Amino acid sequence: MALIFRGEKREARNERRTSLRHCFALIAILLCLFTGAAKSQEAPPSPLASRLSPLFWADGITRAGELDAYKAQGFNVVVVRLSWRASPNGEISAFDLAPQRAFAEEAARRGLKVIYALPAAPTGLETPFRLSANSGAYVSLWTAWLQGAVASLRDTPNLIGWMLPDDPRALPYFDDAGFQSWISQNYADVGVVNRQWKARFESLDDLSISGVNQLISNWSGEAPLTEKERQSSVVTRRQTEEGWAFHPAALALAHYKWDAYRALVTTWVGALRGEDKTHLVLSGRTPDYAQLLSLPAGIDVAVPDLAPDAGENDIVTHNPQAIDIARRGGKFGVLPVISPRVSADLPASALPD
After folding, report:
1. What is the DSSP string of 158-224?
2. Where are the domains of the chain?
3. Residue 49: its pLDDT value, please?
4. What is the model's pTM?
5. CB 90 within 8 Å of CB 55
6. Average confidence (pLDDT) over 33-56
7. What does the DSSP 8-state code read for residue 30?
8. Domain 10-174+264-340, CATH class in plain words
9. How far apart are CA 210 and CA 103, in angstroms?
10. With 101 labelled, which of 180, 221, 302, 316 sits at a CA distance of 20 to 30 A?
11. In this structure, are strands 25-28 and 337-338 parallel, antiparallel, or unpaired?
């Protein structure tokens, strides 16, 4: 199956902009997990995902009055973003999801399917919390909120799934405590760290993310690239006494962040599957190739969000390689995000009619 997205004529564009002015992302779900070129050894698709036909939706629809025009444009699913707000007395375990459910039911009455998008933390309190899989306080708090939300919403008409929080890279899912714990699990002692990194830490407790970044900066010298170097297609290695192409501490830090991200998403998936085994689990918008490669089992649909201004500047085909990466050999269904924003690098006349 192939989906070809064409721009409408300018009159149609203007009409759609007026009726859907709050929408900022067009998304199509490609659940063609076994295409003509698929190989028999590919992993089988999720049983839940394989029952779906393509879905089309625009993010940002929040008012029932917009739903008729929304459906008339050809969209067939709404994503309802759930809020998690503290009560006036500061209580953060209580919640009121009645407005979101009412909107979802209005959508269902029009034949639209429903996906609920989950928050990572109470609104405005994302930073104070340590959003980590090894933070018992956070996991308990999020799971308790999730249990109440799922109990209130799982019987929503036309509900097909739950979307995990968008782009966790913007959340504080890694910190010094987590990094020290990871180092202690992956290095024998501080002597090994110092020997491999050419460092002088007194103990593993002295390690911090900022300190390691400073170590990497001191090694690199942070010499700015010249214009000639930026334009060159030749990859050069830094000449150092150790012969390193990059500092080994940089690799360790990247590996820790990879593991921390994957562990957090795995925790979300496990908690959600514990409450609802019948609906889809979607990854949330994922604007990074490494994120797509680290999604854990239990997710049915990956949501790559590689817009030209976030990934490679591919305004014509919109980074379709992200779809292939997200499929992971047929392991996941894919819900690619297509941004209608005009590239800053191309004039409007360069866009297709």
Report:
1. TEEEEEPPS-GGGS----HHHHHHHHHHHSS-HHHHHHHHT---SSGGG--HHHHHHHHHHHHTTPP
2. 10-174+264-340, 176-253
3. 56
4. 0.77
5. no
6. 52
7. B
8. alpha beta
9. 45
10. 302
11. antiparallel
